[in-house]
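Shipment paperwork, digital attachment
Item: protein structure file
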Amino acid sequence: MDAHSTPRRISIFDTTLRDGEQAPGNAMRPDQKVDLALRIAGLGVDCVEAGFPASSPSDFEATRLISQEMTGTRFATFSRTTRRDVEVAVEAGGTANHEVQMVATGSRIHLEHKRGISREAAVLEVTDTVAFARSLGVEHISVGIEDASRGDDDLLRTLTESAVEAGATCIILADTTGCHTPDEYGTLIGKIRAWAPAPIRVSTHCHNDFGLSLANALAGLHAGADEVQVTLGGVGERAGNTPLEELAALLAYKTDHLGMYTDIELPAMYSAYNALRAVIKLDEPRNKPIFGKYAFGTAAGIHQQGMLSNPETYEFVEPARFGRQRSMLIARHSGRAVLRHLLGQLGVEADAELLNELYRVHIAERVGSDCEDLDVVRDRLAAELVGRELVPDGLALSR
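Attachment content:
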């Protein structure tokens, strides 16, 4: 970014309660959705997608409750490109502060094998439904082009320009199957940006089938997108969606380099994620960025040696910024440096013979892959060294 330019603010659209819920095992009750919606809104997102009101009584009720509780943050609903779906969405959520999102058919394979309709019919249903939503008094109307990453330019351009002419305020480009690479997705967004210039909002919706959802979203932002659709923890169909926490962390650390930022409250994300995990009974991942159990933990001796001197040696992303804590764990790959550290806390200056013996017993001959917190090992060391009269009795209990 040019030193004299101002970073641009990126809009965040959270679809945890809709796309996130669509994944197997992620069903949520309306009252749970309300609680999570308010937590997510509290993070500073611009819009929270409540659900698909026409799909079930549960989604209708969740939308109704969220529309009543959420007054500051915009909420969205999902609809097919039919008047009835939009009518139901408005019945559930009204028009105030409500973004009606409808899905357009964006590829030949979906036209032929999913919908069984012509291109002309696909365009006509978009223009008719957008105009209908506008007639109901809806101000925020977004058209999500499904499977846009496999659509041809002629169809995508016609859908985009027709939707905008009918009154759409946002175009969403869905990499529905997660098949795009960053250069491909960036090129796609660049085309849509040219066909739908500001003030029309352009939004990304990337799936993670190749592990590229974040990279693709970033490429989309570089190409002119204004908004990213995300989910907490990246939950969603198949391999999931662009993770909110990863995007927010990246833009927080790389604001100057990327020329972009968000208003997301970084320390509050982990609590909201754990609330989601509790609802959908999601196991805690070990190595997931930002939210993983050991995302800020290490058991490797060479890393521990450096981090005991200065955490920056192996830690670029700081745990405290995300409401997390750094952890050093004892495992088979730990080294003597961490033992010296623990013995120093106990006031013991170990000679080579004692250090090697403790290393053999407490690290080298460990069975299995379980890790232990430093405090646990330190207390065990203290108890052992009490018997050798190397530390005073009761020290383990006092710490």
